[in-house]
Amino acid sequence: MTTAIIDSHLHFWSLATPGHEWPTAQTPTLHRDFGPDDLRAAAAGTPLAGAVLVQSQPTDIDTDWMLALAAREPLVAGVVGWVDLSSPDAPLRIAALAADPKLRSLRPMLQAIDDTDWLLRDDLAPALEAMLAHGLRLDALVQPRHLPMLVRFVDRWPDLPVVIDHAAKPHAAVGTLDPWRNHIATLASQGTHCKLSGLRTEQAPGQPADELAPYVDHLVATFGERLMWGSDWPVLTWFGDTYARWIADARRLAGLSGTEQEQLFAGCARRFYALDGCDLGARTAGEHVEWSDAGNVGIRDE
After folding, report:
1. Statement: the pTM of the whole predicted model exceeds 0.90
2. Domain that holds residue 209
């Protein structure tokens, strides 16, 4: 079969950007600049057609930097930015950012906030209302501890589209499924979306991807067409994984084909982030991408 991939979740960063917090020198493989040319090298030989660039720093400067980069980079189809949702100025900031045609979503870094119920605070309501008014989405960077809170949040804000990043980072290193499994099923029943991303870095070093099978099976069964593939590159490389290998592993573990496979690797991200109007022309002219049913990826000239 032949298909193109929209990567729903990856990062670029520049260490020189003011306010840069992570990665640090303690993660040496990641402690350098990463940008579009690095992505093209990492994804060479894969059918990558476009990507959603996701914030990595909790700063306005980082979001402005991403949007400026995205404006001149056709590979970036959409941007997930950051805003201090608790700031009194958040509605004005959201309105200004929403004027950028590539901004699609906002992501508070909930995993780094000690207060598990922070997203339920009443003082966030003006910012959340501004997100609704400007047609934005919420990327939920959460851990299993946040899932009961997220159920309540989705009930409170049913019109705000929510996608769960990295499947809420289940405790894959030790194989724990519950209570993550039941909470995820509840959120799926509420109409949320979810990313099949970030799971390799939740495993222990050297742990095989096949041990993610119970998690992937559950995500496919509960979210269906509301599950989207993401690489989480370059964080993906932290434990030595590669872009092409994660594509192949995710494809094998999901066990989908035809239209269902296209929804996982492109269609869901295109719908959720409203990317239909974007120029997904990352491949060079004259290239035809083929992805065989055996899971091999290649490019040949025509």
Report:
1. yes
2. 5-301
